[in-house]
Amino acid sequence: MDALAGLLDGPRARGAFLLRMVMEPPWAIRVEDRAPICLMSVRRGTAVIVPSDGGEPVRLGPGDIAVVRGPDPYTVADAPGTPPHALVGPGGACTTLHGRPLSQDMVLNVRTWGNAADGATAVLVGTYLLEGEISRRLLDAVPPLLTVPADTRTRPLLDLLDAEIAQDEPGQRVVLDRLLDLLLIAVLRAWFARPGADAPAWYRAMGDPVVGTALRLLQHEPAHPWTVAALAARAGVSRAGLARRFTELVGEPPMAYLTGWRLAVAADLLRESDATVEAVARKVGYGTPFAFSAAFKRVRGVSPQEYRGSPPGNHRDLPDRQRGLPRGRPLGRLSP
Description:
The chain is an alpha+beta fold. The protein has helices spanning 3-8, 136-141, 155-165, 172-192, 201-205, 211-220, 228-235, 239-250, 254-272, 277-283, 289-300, 304-309, 320-323, and strands spanning 17-23, 28-31, 37-44, 47-51, 58-60, 65-69, 74-77, 86-88, 94-95, 107-109, 112-114, 121-128, 145-148.
């Protein structure tokens, strides 16, 4: 598993919110859905994304792709100065700024929405509605807004997504979810490959022949009773050499990373499966549910049962150590 695969391995799109937005200027949509990640790509015309933090507006042309990381709001418009006339809330619910529902008023076709069927601007929108705990490493690795210019490698995926988004065939939702995943991977692959990309430490460490081997072993087999000595033997180096190099490149010792990874995997299993706490404990390498529960509560502040019963997103603002995730410094913003 390479660095990007490790980054994305875990929860994937499940019932993602996808549509084709067709608009005739002037238009502006305020987005306050708090979604963890949204992808947008212009198919014709142009669009502008205006961050809420006062950052510079980003203009998208045909084929350009933007990735917006939540939960902060932003505006998508035909021009930076156009005032919003609609508001998108959680789950993709669309209303006027005064709360009147707009979804049905602006339906043009299957998963096609806008103010004019032949509008000058068409934008594909794909939104991940829920944040998985492992994918939080992805969210921590990207800036609030990044753009990738039109590229021959992403064009076929955009063409296919555009063709499928208005279809209503059996299994269509799963098809769209997988296409969105593929598009996200393609965008991140292109973004991380840019010259001068300031990737986080754990991402760069994946390319190291020694530390990358250890990271893959930990991620593939979290339930294994790993020790630094066992990892060093598999990586072909001394115990002291692995510990020193791992800490230098990743930012924390191997066993601390393993604990964070185990609890991140466990959090996903608690949210997305019916496995008992005992079964989850075994899957992530804890000998007893009591030991697992104690570690989980120590790191997250709640028991596994309490975590499973709480609404998704309640823990998104916890620092890495409280979320049980490996630390990594965030990346800078991509230059167009």
